[in-house]
Amino acid sequence: MPTRRHRLILPVVTRNRCTYRLRGALPFSLLALALGGCASTAGPVAGPAGGTSEEVLSAPVMDPAIEATADTPIPDAVDSVASPGLDLDSLVALIRSEAAHERPRSILPFGVAWTPVQPIEGSAIVFRVMQPRGGLEPEAVAGRFADGIVRFGRARHTWLGFAAVPIGTSGILQLDLEFRFGDGSMYQQQVGIEVAPRVWEQTSLSVAPRFSSPPPEVQDRIARDRRQFRAVLDSASPEWLLVGPFALPRPFDVTAEFGQERVFNGEMQSRHTGLDLRGPVGEPVHAAGRGRVVLTGDFYFSGNGIFLDHGLGVYTGYFHLSEILVSEGEMVKTGELMGRVGATGRVTGPHLHWSLWVDGTGQDAGSLLEVEVPLP
Known about the structure:
Distance between the termini: 66 Å
């Protein structure tokens, strides 16, 4: 009678269940007894070479990851737990002894809340994932929404993540969440969220011809500006820099909404990527939230501008300034003076062009006033 080494591994956590893997011909009744009768359905899975099979057993319990091995001679076919040559009592005692060392809390469904409650296309949405009382604590949370990445970071007793709702996206969208735990196990959860469509305005503007049809000599400068923008927006800091909710960079007197379809000098050229706030030249412009200044400069279309990194792929921008009062690498607080309103770049008059990007996608900066960000 051949001798085979059997390996019992419990558990691997998948989708709020524990998966027990048994390699070899160990009978189902033995596993049921060893686990105190908690084993349920079994199904065949491709096994190792040599003809042995692997059974995957799922049970709605949560035990720590344990490995128990037995070198006992096992017959090729075991019809009952009392088969000769199998020290059943020793194996059961070993499994129960190892399981008693540590019993972490169960994985329970996580609470998920979002603001605004009714998101619309082109706006940011903030997800808060709340730890269930008595549940297992994850080491990391990751998500996907509307084909974009949702990066989560700790904020007080919750996990906080910003997501983009791209223009042209509406209906029921799915938030896919993945939780990783200290023992290497994972849990997945899905939430359906309704996104409302939005009607976009169209406007005609008259600007200097060099801005509607840039001459060849400035094309290199325009390309350089775009490369700089993408280098910033395609990266993400590994942690939240934001502290508390966002605030207006200046009084909320809107002259042009986000998303306008813009016709310059009779030619359709772009969609407005920011929210324009009225102000005379020289009026103060403040940081909308705590963050790090990652890029400043004089850009062809945007004029004097500042990019502020709030962490985890969330950026705000401040453009057409007459003065820039901060330097790259500087940390600023919410409400801190960063610059002054101007009329630089492609403009029809002085104002602040306030922008927001989440995961590299332009969003309505005004939606930051509708999301909830917890205080530290």
